[in-house]
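Why predict the complex rather than its parts? Because the way molecules touch one another can change local conformation, and only a joint prediction can capture that. The input here totals 891 residues.
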Amino acid sequence: MPAWVKGAATDIDAAIAAAADLLGAARMPVIAGLNAEVSAIRAAFDLAGRVGASLDTDGAAGTYAELGALSRVGAMTSTPAEAVGRADAVLVLGSAPAKSEILGRIAAGAPTRGRAAGAARAILALDGANEGGVLPALARLRAHFRGHLADESPTAVLASKLAAAQYVVVLYDPAEIGEMGVETVQGLVTDLNDRTRAFSLAVSGGHRNQDRAVVPVSAWTTGQAPRVGLGRKVPEHDPWRFDAARQVAAGEADAALWLSSLPAPRPDWLGQVPSVALVGEASPDAAEVVIAVGVPGRDVGGVLWNETRGALTYWPAQAGGSAPADRPTAAAVLGMLTDRLAARSGTAC
Amino acid sequence: MLSVIRGGRVVDPTASRDAVGDVWIEDGRVIEAPGREPDRVIDAAGCVVMAGGVEVHSHIAGGNVITSRLLLPELYVSEAAPEGHPFAHAGGAAAWIGSTYARMGYTTAVEPAMPPTHALGTQLELADIPLLDRGALTVMGNDDQLLQLLRDGVGKAAVRDLVALNVATSRGLGVKCINAGGASAFKDGALKLSLDDEIPCYGLSTRRIMGSLLDAVEEIGVPHPLHVHCNNLGLPGADDSFMATLDAAEGRRIHFAHAQFYAYGETDDGKGFRSAAERIARAIGDNPQATLDIGQVVFGQTVTVSLDILRQFAGRKGANPKKWVLNAGDAEGGGVVPFLYRPKGPTSSLQWAIGLEIMLLSPDPERTILTTDHPNGGPFTQYPRIIHLLMDRSEREREIATLPGIVGERSGLPGIEREYTLSEIAQLTRSGPAKLLGLADRGHLRPGARADVAVYRDDPNRTAMFTAAKLVLKDGTPIVEDGEVVEWRAGRTLSLTVESDRAMEKRTDSYLTDRFGTGLDSFTVPDEAFDAPTFEAVPCRA
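Output of the joint prediction:
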């Protein structure tokens, strides 16, 4: 099975021993990526809890915009299937949702369930091209709802179309509109619910979104959303402090474990600290210690975020594919690493 | 290994046992005294020995619980973890839930609201709760597929097959309905729903949906009766909804969730509520086929989580702090609304009194089970305090004396002299919930019982006594000693063995593919999704 230490091919035991040396010597290790199946994410949290590491996720910009707004103002949300089945008006914010698979499904049909069934479906866009961006356009739209603006502008027309609809879904990519944008969306949706039913639906505009699976695992494991630090043996949620790129750039982190059993580009900062990479697509120079692990849903079975469903679902290994049969799961490798580190701390005590 | 718990006061109401004696254990089971020398003697002198506690209604996993952590991360306090588990003291986390229950002497807990569309996530989370055996109730009653079947009048067999398929696919332990039809009605503009109101687009009513689920549960032979969250939770006059729902059950077995929130009779001026505890308790006395759990309110900050989005939408403006999440999900969805039961506030004081009053008026504690509907009435960590108040009238009077006069004006609590005995506490927290769930192997200490045992120091301060057990055995293995976890073992998830009908599988696969873009496969909870063997089969009733 492919594993490398400092670019030289080796076996799994030697690679895990080297990884344990590297992480065991660190004072402030970070575990990042977490672009992996749920069992591997769980194992990463367990390892972090035992060595006092912090945890960060790949593709985090959208997730943190979403989480920040959620913890401050809350949310009113719907699901992909509800949007497809019920919405007679879909407001598409910005340009990123056009890259999501869900918009195609929404655009291809009309409401079939609920009180809007049989009605036509209006796909409405708010891209802010002439208004200085999505956020100002969104703010203007909300001002119309609240009666703070009154004119004959296209935004006013849009506001009245939404208010006249029976089931509105606002589609947005949090990575594109940011935390303030998400807050404004939630305010808009809340206002709309004084007149009709309206909900938000966050989509990923074609970028990786496995961190949507990290959020629940982090919440049930630590009681907190990611990013989480465990250096003080108490889970501490702090998206700024535990940003792995920032920690490395600031010289706070002195070792890193990059977990990406699903394919993802390696971050630039990884080479700046001693690092271990557990990756589905491995190259010998990805990190100081590299271990190739099974890709979930291809080489090995695993639970992944399913954007079509908006839920965690199980993906079996593909039968008869060209998958390398000798790859361990990322969870198994992390488990071995944790055991080895625990045994050491046992002897050290 | 043969063990004996020696010399404790053994309290097992199912065997009319309340006397000093021994409990013998071998191979994880309680056995008759074998006439052999034990390998291990556990000295329980001065202690009370009970079966492990069984929880029937506590929101400990699932999408809403996760959202509550994201919305209100400051609700629980985290402390540095002890040796043995890195997250045991992470407030609100799965390990904290497992260890806190275990320290209180509980060994089984059921999450009452698992939406079939999110069964895998809920089951993965439950499986990460250590120490306890767990289970989840599959929620139905607002899903379009079911409502379509009922609208189309396809007959009882199809409804039964769909319910069986949902329980089998989600690996539930029972079936629950939550304001049946309410979430669907909310999405179609309704803001209120009573038993016979029409559910828009389907021409159905809560009565009809619930009735079909009551039938399905009986026909499948689910040991746990249909677990019902009625209409109009928390509103003045909700006692009428409770009684109407009981009538609508027409003698079929039914369990009422968090009944305290329905024991609100309307005041004469129509502006407020007064205790209807007596009415509710009498109804339970008159209907041996009915059970309830309390949903006791405790003072302080909490966050309410419910799949009753109609109710949570109505309650959003009372959010404290002022933020809330409402998810119009694939069937129910859910609402997460932070709430403060104001210490000494008139409304919360009356709610507090009503829950205690139902229990103290109960004609049969086995059928009026202690819950706080965690975290909706307050955290389950308050059970020891609630037990204290039930067992000690003077303690109750001391607390009532600090509360506003409304407690005496609108509830009968101050006049109640009853003090619960330890046997009654065991009925309330052990034998009652175990019988309700149909789990014959727990909730008692008769030979054959699973050796889930809690040993408490007999302390007149019942709060202290029930907060930190002296010893807790799970399947005969000590997991807690002197209030601290000593072995981090995994429990099992109890899941009903249900045969699903092939034709319904095929029909459902086609329905789901059309609606969700993916078929039945993506809704399953396969063993392979778990790192270790997780599920234990529970048979249906013969």
